[in-house]
Amino acid sequence: MKSSQPSCCSCSSVADVSQCSCSSGTSQQAEIRKTDSTITFTNQLDHFLARWGMNRMGHRVEPDLYRLGNPTPESLVFASANYTLSFDALRSALAGFDAYILVLDTKGINVWCAAGKGTFGTDELVSRIEAAGLAGIVTHHKIIVPQLGAPGVSAHEVLHRSGFKVEYGPVRARDLPEYLITHKATPEMRRVEFPVCDRIVLAPVELVHVVFPTIVIAAVLWFLAGPVTSLAAIAAVVAGTVLFPVLLPFIPTKDFSTKGLLLGGIVAIPFAAAFASTLALPGWARLIAALTPLLIIPAVTAYLALNFTGSTTFTSRTGVRKEIFRYVPVMTFMAVSGIILGIVLGVSRLMGVI
Q1: Which of 37, 81, 313, 339 has its CA 20 to 30 A from that of 66?
Q2: Of the candidates 159, 192, 225, which is a domain's last residue?
Q3: Prediction pTM value
Q4: What is the pLDDT of residue 28?
Q5: Distance from C-alpha of 32 to C-alpha of 5, rounded to nearest angstrom
Q6: pLDDT at residue 13 is higher than 80
């Protein structure tokens, strides 16, 4: 990353701003990267691959200061994560505007998640302001930060440390043109929503992470216990990665873990009924066979549902931490118990008991 080193002055590379000279007789000029508002086919392909979890950590923009259009020292400055989808959403929403975009190093993570992790935070914002020599480039000393970045950014501390006032913009980048008319957000602009279309678009990433082990496990179960057991394994994963995001607001519990346990229990019922009705097995074996999916499927679905907390604005860091300590032991107990029962059935069959 190239940036100005304002030991005695800071200079801009904008065409209508002349170079300045330091007292030592040397001159410095910050190099500002250039971008535009056009979303190309390459950008769209990058978005598609990111949504499907391909090269997940490779969808990054170089952290630096960017100029959009032909900004002047009076032009607005916007902060962004260096995740390509975040950066592209911002620059495309600012079509027709002359502005600066200060890209923070969030390790390729979007604004909301990075704010929760602390990478879209006060320290990083102040560091980037200083590294870009922003105080010598703009005259207003104000930076617009996405509202979803607020959990990680302390406005008063940024002002104290950098001299820049933080203005929290709307939740969605697409609302910026209307917001910039008055710099006042309507209640709708401040409202954090997570509609079904936004939830569904996240499902592929969750699914891709587990698709390979799911295929392997399903194949093994097919040969060891038959197609119904193999289908049960697939159903547990699909429930946790696809059905759960779709049905999230409609499952009547608060915690994601209990939502997953409830959804997994519903998915497990047909498989439990199928195993319980296998007349070729003795009564005790049918009972064990029915209990096995009722223990394993909810545990798997709940665990995958808990993973989804990192993709939603419905949860908080403290809430997720509480869920992990409260419910992961329960999931582990259920899964281990189900596996043990399954092993008992398998061994009984091999020994000719059933």
Answers
A1: 313
A2: 192
A3: 0.77
A4: 43
A5: 13
A6: no
